[in-house]
């Protein structure tokens, strides 16, 4: 993609406004917390302290909107306290001293590295640095700086307290994640009726797994209907695929296929009912038609072999889903996924950030360097230019910069467009109302409410609301709009331009890493297929290794898809992997993972007869895919001679289970398809 087209695409993406489900009660709670803090601060301390506390309360509420499975009060507290510390230290070193530049450089570099821990931590750290640039200019003495920092912390505490006192949809994010996973599996069942080899996006299941991780304290308080349903949904998905696939299931036409379609339709209905029940915290209502379809007694007479076993297992698993959604049954006994508490998380986060220091070509390290340099240069430019309020240039840059190209450029355009609209509206309101301190505070709170309410509709909308909020908040302290609006517009443009130039000068393109992502996916698929086949050689083997291999496969696939999406919009040409080769390679690896999943759906019982030849095939699969992954990284053609030899030896020994032998042949076919895809002549990029 050319630079011109890339800029057009990112600009269009940044200015896009989407229709999203609004949460007015959550927005009202955040605005109420802000109003409480501003009202108390105005009454007791005056406009300057009120402005500082308002920034703390505003950012505390913003932090709770980030995608995180941790309790929202914890996010508000962490944001408020970290902003308070940043403000106090920033004032101590002096905003016009070389030491402040050093502190700003250190703070922004650390905020950039924080993206290695996760996007939630990265967003909160970046926002706190940006707001710190404003709050350090408000106090005039050390004692006042301490007071301002204290009130900023109070703003976060108030937001956290309101979340505790007025909860809205307890465990709502976790309910939505689990319901989305159940609904995704239900939709998969319906699609299999018409397309027996339909693909499945495992991201909802991965998200539900992240949402299911809790601390020991949370595990004791979690609603019963959130226990275990995710694990049952995980087990249902391969059963559905094996029941529908003609390779290991029933013929494409005939009485057996008709019965399978009935079962798939009933499964989709039951899963949808369970998803609604979990989302709203109510008992599931299963339509009688679906119950009748699952309870039909002639299934055993119609289906035979693997299909019959899959149908029986599906009925049992669907009953488990309904029991779990009702808050009773097998789900309650499930072992919870434990995650560390926040104090225990800090050492691990620091180790992760320190590890990034040794990865000089990683996107996170390069982002940290870019944001550090841009913030410092932006602050110097703002200081020497004759505008005043020079902190707006680095603040805009820090707020828009992200580790990848698309988000950085899209947010830069959205920030400037939103700022223009926001300050224009703020200026018009000021000209019409001539607000005093109290009215400025009220309008600022209203702008904050709109920011919370419309946050998820687009960054341009959020930028407009935040721009108006800042204008009225600073106007509350006595600054006239003529002192803030022109400076803010021009310096925001400078900050956005610096952010865009920095990525062009010191990029972290995803395009050159596509082969590495593809190789990682191949290696993960190979480990998964090997673990599945090994179970046929040792039926009494535990499933821990198999489960971890499956999770690694999903993570690798999502990493590949994210990298491909980013590379699609980058103005970079990569001659090592064409669009056609990437598409066909991804299809081959998807089919490889799917075949392994079908074989997993028919794993032998613990007392089944072992298949000794499967052990040799499992070893050959693991070694061949590891070597194949190395070949993909080095731009060589992978070969699968070891797998072919293992299959030939297997045929000579006899195969007692046609499912595993047929699946092994399909695995080799998928590997050959990958080789063919990688040897496809490179097609020109559009």
Automatic annotation (TrEMBL):
* Keywords from the named record: Membrane, Transmembrane, Transmembrane helix
The reply to whether Repeat figures as a keyword in the UniProt entry is: no
| Integral membrane protein YccS N-terminal domain segment(s) | 82-189
Q: Does the keyword Transmembrane helix apply?
A: yes
InterPro entries from the UniProt entry? Memb_transporter_dom (IPR049453), YccS_N (IPR032692)
What does the record say about its membrane topology? Multi-pass membrane protein
Main localization of the protein described in the UniProt heading: membrane
Q: Where in the cell is it found?
A: Membrane
One Pfam family, please name it. FUSC_2
Source superkingdom = Bacteria
Q: Where is the Integral membrane bound transporter domain?
A: 378-501
What name is this protein filed under?
FUSC family protein
